[in-house]
């Protein structure tokens, strides 16, 4: 032990040297790792803007940027990609063989429609199918009444997949009905996203499992590097009954989707009910997700009833018989191309006369922005409906920043007023209508697993137009210079959030 003052000074200097050496070593490691990550970003980031941003930040500020790059830097869910490859080798009697069953229901499009929309078949790796019946549900209470009725009528199995399930009265009602059907001997497959349903307690899953329900949570998967892929989410929502009846759209399971949370006002969302071969395409999307989450393959029905009158939806003005052409387009970060963004860009480019977009999050990238501007320049009437009330401050600021980019004489943008507008819908030329789970932002373009159900049917497109015109009656147009009267700090925040758009 030191006994003199000089000894204490020498010990302090020695400790300082040790700390300096440790700090220097850590700094050098961060610099080295930052350069390695920068090289990785240079070769793997899909856009030049993204690659430039990551490379500069990783080289200049590695201690700050490296942790963010590990969490947010990848735009391909590599574990899911590897799973697909493995399954194609080990389970080629399932997914690929099942996919071969769909063409028997293939719809023959006219040459013009094939030229305009046939690329969607390439994106989906599935065809447009014929003899589908559809019904719009633009109300949460009506949506869940129909879903619960369909569950109660299930004879063989129920597939349930939601991004978010809340442990509130709606979530409890769903659990009660699933348990009741499971006890009747109906197979139940219940899948949630690990992040979207992070606060759903384990007891909820255990109660289902004790009744015989098969449950799984879609997460990052096993393996060290997969643990850093938390930026990826499975945002799909679908319900399938016996392979014959299905639902998809924007609704999750929570009381806010019923309009019962005051701060969101009259929550506005849309789910699409479908009967027919398009349901099999919903199941194919579910098959990959379930296998990733559970390493098992569900036993599902892959045949449609030859008697299409058994599931006719024609008992009210908002329904019609099974004669519509439809396709399910799943997209996600495991795709070879960025099909999420390409899907929207292609539909915008396909518009000749009219284009409607309704989305809670409107944060387009450069390709969608240019496509909308070009559509307006060639005479397309573009109408975009956004929420005035938002569930996130950042995305509201982002909506404002991007809405301010367009010439509002040609691109008409509206704020929906009664409550939070959460529906994801696009309508092209009163001809192709799409409803599903994908938002109009980078997360849905590149990071989330999404799906959109597209319908080629003029009667259904007319119904969709009527629905959107009803939304327009409850909206106010946004003037082109609407941001100039906002306080300076709000305008500054909006511009700053625009810089963050790739991760919103």
What can you tell me about this protein's structure?
The chain folds into three domains: 5-72, no CATH class; 78-108 and 131-324, Endonuclease, Chain A, CATH 3.30.870; 339-503, Endonuclease Chain A (Endonuclease, Chain A). The chain is an alpha/beta fold. It is built from 17 helices and 16 strands. It is globular, with a radius of gyration of 25 Å. The model is unreliable at 223-228 (pLDDT under 50). The chain has a 16-stranded mixed beta sheet that branches. α1 (5-44) crosses α3, α12 runs parallel beside α13 (366-377) and α14 crosses α17. The protein has helices spanning 5-44, 48-60, 62-72, 78-90, 95-99, 111-117, 119-124, 140-152, 169-183, 202-210, 278-294, 339-350, 366-377, 393-403, 442-447, 458-473, 488-499; strands at 129-137, 157-162, 187-193, 214-218, 233-234, 238-241, 245-249, 271-275, 324-331, 354-358, 381-387, 411-416, 425-428, 432-436, 448-456, 475-477. The protein is 43% helix and 18% strand.
Helix content: 40-55%
CATH topology of the largest domain: Endonuclease, Chain A
Mean pLDDT: 82
Main sheet summary: 16 strands, mixed
CATH architecture of the largest domain: 2-Layer Sandwich
**What's the total count of β strands?**
16
Number of domains: 3
What is the tally of helical segments?
Answer: 17
CATH class of the largest domain: Alpha Beta
How far apart, in Å, are the first and last alpha carbons?
57 Å
Taking pLDDT < 50 over at least 5 consecutive residues as the criterion, the unreliable ranges are: 223-228
- Estimated share of beta-strand residues: 15-25%
Overall SS class: alpha/beta
Name the overall outline.
Answer: globular
By CATH, the superfamily of the largest domain comes out as Endonuclease Chain A
Radius of gyration: 25 Å
């Amino acid at each position: 032990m030191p006994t003199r003052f000089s000894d204490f000074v020498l010990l302090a200097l020695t400790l300082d040297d040790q700390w300096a050496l440790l700090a220097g070593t850590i700094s050098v490691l961060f610099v080295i790792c930052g350069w390695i990550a920068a090289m990785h970003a240079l070769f793997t980031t899909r856009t030049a803007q993204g690659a430039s941003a990551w490379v500069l930040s990783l080289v200049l500020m590695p201690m700050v940027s490296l942790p963010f790059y590990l969490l947010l830097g990848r735009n391909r869910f590599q574990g899911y990609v590897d799973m697909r490859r493995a399954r194609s080798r080990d389970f080629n009697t399932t997914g690929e063989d099942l996919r071969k069953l769909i063409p028997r229901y293939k719809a023959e499009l006219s040459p013009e429609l094939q030229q305009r929309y046939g690329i969607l078949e390439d994106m989906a790796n599935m065809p447009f199918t014929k003899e589908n019946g559809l019904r719009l549900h633009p109300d949460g209470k009506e949506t869940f009444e129909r879903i619960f009725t369909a569950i109660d009528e299930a004879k063989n199995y129920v597939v349930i997949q939601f991004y978010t399930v809340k442990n509130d009265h709606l979530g409890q009602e769903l659990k009660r009905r699933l348990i009741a059907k499971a006890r009747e001997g109906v197979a139940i497959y219940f899948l949630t996203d690990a992040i979207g349903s992070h606060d759903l307690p384990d007891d909820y899953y255990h109660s289902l499992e004790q009744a015989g329900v098969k449950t799984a949570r879609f997460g990052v998967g096993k393996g060290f590097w997969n643990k850093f892929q938390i930026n990826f989410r499975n945002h799909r929502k679908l319900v399938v009954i016996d392979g014959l009846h299905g639902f998809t759209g924007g609704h999750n399971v929570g009381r806010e989707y019923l309009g019962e949370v005051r701060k969101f006002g009259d929550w506005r969302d849309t789910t699409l009910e479908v009967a027919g071969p398009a349901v099999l395409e919903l199941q194919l999307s579910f098959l990959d997700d379930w296998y990733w989450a559970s390493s098992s393959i569900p036993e599902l029905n892959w045949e449609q009833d030859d008697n299409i009158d058994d599931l006719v939806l024609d008992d009210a003005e908002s329904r019609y018989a099974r004669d519509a052409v439809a396709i399910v387009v799943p997209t996600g970060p495991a795709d070879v191309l960025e099909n999420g963004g390409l899907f929207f860009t292609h539909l915008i480019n396909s518009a000749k006369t009219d284009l409607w977009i309704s989305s809670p999050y409107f944060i387009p990238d450069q390709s969608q922005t240019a496509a909308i501007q070009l559509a307006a320049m060639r005479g397309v009437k573009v109408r975009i409906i956004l929420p005035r009330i938002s569930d996130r401050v950042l995305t509201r600021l982002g909506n404002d920043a991007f809405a301010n980019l367009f010439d509002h004489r040609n691109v008409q943008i509206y704020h929906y007023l009664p409550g939070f507008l959460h529906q994801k819908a696009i309508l092209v030329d009163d001809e192709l209508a799409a409803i599903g789970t994908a938002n109009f932002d980078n997360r849905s373009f590149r990071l989330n697993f999404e799906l959109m159900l597209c319908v080629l049917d003029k009667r259904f497109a007319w119904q969709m137009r009527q629905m959107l015109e009803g939304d327009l009656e409850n909206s106010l147009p946004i003037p082109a210079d609407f941001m100039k009267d906002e306080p300076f700090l709000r305008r500054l925040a909006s511009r700053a959030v625009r810089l963050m758009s790739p991760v919103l």
